[in-house]
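Researcher: Here's a chain I'd like modeled. Treat it as a single chain, no partners, no ligands.
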Amino acid sequence: MGLGLGIDLGTTFTGAAVSGPDGTSMVPLGRVGVVEPSVVFAGVDGSLLTGDAAVDAGRGEPHRLARGFKRRLGDPTPLVVGGSPYSPAALLAAQLRVVVSRVRAPVESLVLTCPAVWGPYRREHFDEVPRLAGLTDAVMVTEPEAAATHYAAERRLGVGELVAVYDLGGGTFDTTILRAREDGMEIVGTPEGIERLGGMDFDEALFAYVDNALDGALSAMDPADPEAASVLTFTRAACVRAKEELSIEPDVRVRVPLLSGQREVVVTRLAFNEMIRPSVDLTVDALHRTISSAGLTPADLAAVLLAGGSSRIPLVDQVVSGAFGRPVRTGLHPKFTVALGAAAIAARRVHRSAPRISRRRLLIPAAAVAALALVGGGVAALSGSSGNTPDSSQPDAMLSPVASLDEPVVTETITGLGRRPRGVAVSSTKAYVPSSLSNTVSVIDRMSHKVLKAIPVPSPPQYVVLDGDKAFVTLLDPGNAIAVIDTTRDEVVNTVPAGRSMFVPAVTPDGKRLLVPEQDTAQIIELETDSTVATPFAKVPTGPRGLAIHGTNVYVVSVDLNQVTTLDLDSRRVTGSVKVGKSSLAIALSPDGNTAYTANYDDNTVSVVDTAGQRTVDTIQVGAHPLALAVAPDGKHVYVANNGDNSVSVIATDRNEVTATIKTGREPWFIAVSPDGRETYVTNSLADSVTVLKTA
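Model: Modeled as a single isolated chain. Structure tokens:
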């Protein structure tokens, strides 16, 4: 059976995804990441290179490089690249043709996306792109529609609830309002956008700031001069990197190789925020108008959903949250939502019985609506080792694991927590549960199953890990920090600035270091457990979500590349990798470290990996959208939290079979086993509760 292919020909980056019976996943396009630059290089012989190959070729001849041509679509004046004229549609077609050639499986349906603000004139010119690429029957949908479709596939929304999609990409901004219905999602009001506002404009603002700091040395250069053009190209690329780094760093240095000698310009996050604040304010005004066009107020919204790479800039989250007073959420794949949604729409066209997408109403099957979740700055990157670290202050006898059960039973449902509980970590006497909408960490007594205390934290907390008498909690925007809790007093004793979009942390075997995967920058952050400074540990493949440690090996699972990467803890170098299931969000290790298990969200499976042989040895079908998993201390069972059908799958590891399926509360988000293996705790994000299972 053929696949549905969705392609987001973005202004700055191009992404593609495929969707079929086995789920939806990104097509790796870039050399080191999933997406590739929207760049074309015009060769002397008239050939056109695209993506990373174009960037490489353009280093020596920058005048032959074209960027941002999507913004020029419909302009009758051709673009002159390398001395030859090209229409923007022809350059987009060159990029599209190469992307389609990367898909190795047969494609039956193709969906392309465009900004919602494009009128008939621009859309007519966009229709030329697939024709010039030699493709037929391509369907166009707007970017907010595609983003909404993807959110519908990975999140949950109550019938009648409303959300706003805020899509800030590289070249345009779009926004729309959607209402959940029994039979799908309905677009309400009038979608709006700003055609020439996005990451490219932020890059230009940074470039102008650097130029001003150098007394106009850059603007005084002649772009036609090859040496000057090389300097300008290098500096623009440096400004793009600086923009990205400012999302996690308070300041950066931009190095400029002027012909008179190298110079450096320091740019602070505060200065960058002031540069782009007027543009961000314009997006807020547009969203206000969209809300008003639907006859609504911000209070009517369940959340504002962020999409597009530029929406991950910290100021965006802060301004949007402050302007509307509603939860601001991102998806599992905030940078890839448009491509993934387009692929899902394309897949529905393959199956003729699926609902039709229209501009006024976006229909999503009821089963997909039941899988929709509006509660996350990102879904868990879930390490089974999290929450299983023994509490060294307790007697060893209490920590001795006992034999786990093939068929656990529910013994308690704990309420009285904060709103939207996320992670959970369990010691011999207590459990700690961060609640993202309440800015609290609840402390649960394991004997009585009562909430003892709600510890306030400065920003929305997400995940927690225990180590001795400390608990480490990752904090979302605007905090972007790690809160350190003294578990003897159950009080926050320190808050350490760290990265944005951090996922499940893990402590090294010696207890001296905390490692945290940071999705936005594709790196691991390191914090010495007695320190107050977080530093980069290592770069990893794009989309790191889950992390687990055994001995001197660090295992990192990538949701974007569907693989587990192994790093050496001491040298910090990559020592191997293995492919696993689609959209792998979680990883857990057997007690001996010989086996890794990954929760594969999009294909409803758990991959079993032989860590020594670096190979996947089995694939186990579990419930819908497995989001978290943990291994029993005796290693005999794996417990999998299935976000899509409110259940826990119990896997017997001796035969890699599901022995039981247990119902939980709404939207199980995380799972952790007590050190003795007697109890397993599951956080139910939409039920604001914790399900306790007797597992031994």
